[in-house]
Each structure stands twice: as structure tokens, then as C-alpha cells.
Amino acid sequence: MEELVTKINPGKSLFRLLLYMIVLGVSIQLVLMGLSLLVMKILSPESPFSLSFFQENTVALKGMLLISSVTTFILPAWILYRSESGIHPYFERINKVSSLQYLFVFAAMLCFIPMMSLLAYWNESMQLPDSLRGVQQWMRASEDSAAVMTKQIVEESTWGGLLINLIILAVVPAVGEEMVFRGCLQNIFGRWIWNKHVVIWLVAIIFSAFHMQFFGFIPRMLLGAFFGYLYVWSRNIYLPIFGHFINNASATITAFYYTRKGIPFEEMNNFEQEPIWVYLASLIFTVIFVVLYYRSTKKIPYGARLEED
């Protein structure tokens, strides 16, 4: 087995993954965007031939976001998995997953929400030195641009729209991003670096930086590390996918609730300071459920296979 694991250099695997992400993620999106604009021009000759079409049309924007998630994450990760199948353990499902473990992850994610909001507020309040003022202005402009797109997508008041948003914003990103970051990158870097904690935090940093939303870097990095530990402890890719889904779905459902109440998107993101005991309780209960989850993974004999069901 050890002989098989060392067959492919991790640098080659990383290069393949990045190549697939660039070729599929960028090329396919450009082709589809071009075809969409061409069809729009044929159907409506008076319409301007401009990429602003995707910014002004919510349906088109959601479609491109869905295609982006599939071509940038799911397809490249799956192709790498198939090309190295039987050699490297991407998307492990070595251990069985109990319903109790899903419950612990669900509870931990919900309990962490108040603490995550506080961390996001602190992160957003950070100021770079004057010498890096230009960098901070660029980061703010990038954040504001992302917020405009997010507002256009999440301000949905119909149940059908909520279902579509859950698929686009929660299901597909959870599957795709965990396939790439935990399934592929964590395994690739794990062949270079033997310390699993270093690998988990390194991938978590890359995961957060990839989103290009710098004023939420710290809480997203912590989430990435949490998903990494879920994967290492359980040896099953389904657990980090589930945790990622809960995080994204809770934000999507909250936005839907506020939209139904007529509350503007800008007010949804306003931070309201809670009493200190709320954050202490958030932290304590999150730790409790994480510990319970960790202990539950130790009760499953290592190597218990799914096919034994």
C-alpha cells in the first residue's frame, strides 16, 4: 500500500488539479458566457452586447454561479480523483458515519454563529497601516463588489427561489469546495507535510484566501480548519460537506427570512452587539459539541468499511 501511495509526486497532483481548475473553470465559463450573449443578441438585437447582462439579470447570474461552482470545483476534483483512482485516497469514506455525528456537526455549526458574527465584526474593523492604504482600498472595493452580487442573489422572497438558492449557494458549493480543499488539497499537502495540523491550517488559509473576501478572512479560515478536522477525525468526506452545507444554508435561509420581512440587505449585515454571555455560551457549547463529535469518531473502529452494511 505504501508503495502505491508514493507513485505520483504531490507536486504533479497539485499541478494537475490547478490545471483542471483553470482550463475547466475559466474556459468553459468564457465559452458559455459568449454563447449566452450571442443567443441574447439573436433573440433581442437591440440589446447591448455587454457582460453587464449577467449583472442585471438575476437568473443569468445564478446560472453562471452554478456553472462556475461545477466547472471550477466539482469537475476538476472528480477528474483528478478518476485519474489517480486507486493510488491516492481522495474523497475518503473509510469510516461509517452515524446520525449522531451529523447531529453534533449540525449543533456545533449553529452554536458557533454568534461567535462567528463577532469574529467577522472584529475582522472587518481591522485597519492596515497607512503604507498599505491602497491595498485596503482595493480589498474594500472587492468586498463591496461581492456584496452587490450577493444582494442580487439572496434577496429572494419565494419558496421556489429559496430552494434554487439553497442548491446554488449551499449544496453545490459545499460539495465542490470540500472536494477540492479537503478531498484533494488536504490529501496532496498531506503527502508533503506529515504534520496533519499544519496541513489542516495551511489548507484553511488557502480556502479563506480563495474567496477573495478579506474582511471575513478570519472566521472563514476557522471554518476551513473545522472542516479539515471533521475530515481527518472521521475519515469521511461527507462530514465536512454536511458542515459546509449547514453554514451556507443557515445564511441563505436567514437572508430569505429577512427579505420576507421586508428588511433590506444592508440591514441584514449590520452587526448588533450581544451581551457577553451570548458569546461565551456560543463558544462553550461549540467546544462541547466538537468534543462530543471527536469522541464519537474514536468509538468507530478504524477501517470499518461502508460496504459492511
Describe the 3D structure:
This protein has 309 residues and is mainly alpha-helical. The protein folds into 2 domains: 1-88, no CATH class; 92-308, no CATH class. It contains 13 helices and no strands. Helix 5 (99-111) packs across helix 11. The longest helix is centred in the N-terminal third of the chain and has 34 residues, at 10-43. The chain is globular and about 55 Å long. 28% of the residues are buried. Mean pLDDT is 85; it is low at 1-5 and 302-309.
Give a brief rundown of this model.
InterPro entries: Rce1/LyrA-like_dom (IPR003675). This protein is an all-alpha fold and 309 residues long.
Radius of gyration: 21 Å
Structural class of the helices, strands and pairings?
mainly alpha
The tally of beta strands, per DSSP, is 0
Overall geometric form: globular
Question: Which key terms come to mind for this protein?
Answer:
single chain, mainly alpha, disordered N terminus, disordered C terminus, 309 residues, 2 domains
Provide the fold topology.
Elements: H1 2-5, H2 10-43, H3 52-56, H4 58-83, H5 99-111, H6 113-125, H7 133-154, H8 159-192, H9 196-210, H10 217-234, H11 238-260, H12 265-268, H13 276-298
Helix pairs in contact: 2-4, 2-8, 4-8, 5-11, 5-13, 6-13, 8-9, 8-11, 9-10, 10-11
GO molecular function: hydrolase activity
Domain CAAX prenyl protease 2/Lysostaphin resistance protein A-like: 161-249
Protein name: CPBP family intramembrane glutamic endopeptidase
